[in-house]
């Protein structure tokens, strides 16, 4: 997923916990994009040697442990960040490979395979129907945000 992590998280919170506090909403929204900060490492340090889904930031167990620790300490922020990140993992699983069983297995499967139809892989994703779904999510989140009395 390219652009819909944040709006998808916003929609999820509005649907599941419409009474969520601003703090919880902000934590979930932050968590929904936090895993992709590994792209800085991917481009600036790792020189694109490993797919960024192979980094710890894209391992669901890491976020599940954060959720557990946050729950144990009564931290709604930690639980919110972890929930947002786990939603990120679910959405990345649609057209990307996430190793849900890591560290016990490296098995991963994608729900939808995006074929390499263009020389530049990004163009292949942008021209695939799954990107239209992302645009629909962004549009829906925009509509909900505009008609909602709650801005965040
Ligand atoms: Zn990601």
TrEMBL record:
Membrane-spanning intervals of the chain: 24-44, 64-87, 94-114, 126-147
Specify the protein name: Metal-dependent hydrolase
- Organism of provenance: Pseudosulfitobacter pseudonitzschiae
Q: Name one Pfam family in it.
A: YdjM
The keyword Transmembrane helix is annotated on this UniProt entry = yes
Keywords, in A-Z order: Membrane, Transmembrane, Transmembrane helix
InterPro entries to which the protein is assigned, alphabetical = YdjM-like
Q: Which residues form a coiled coil?
A: none
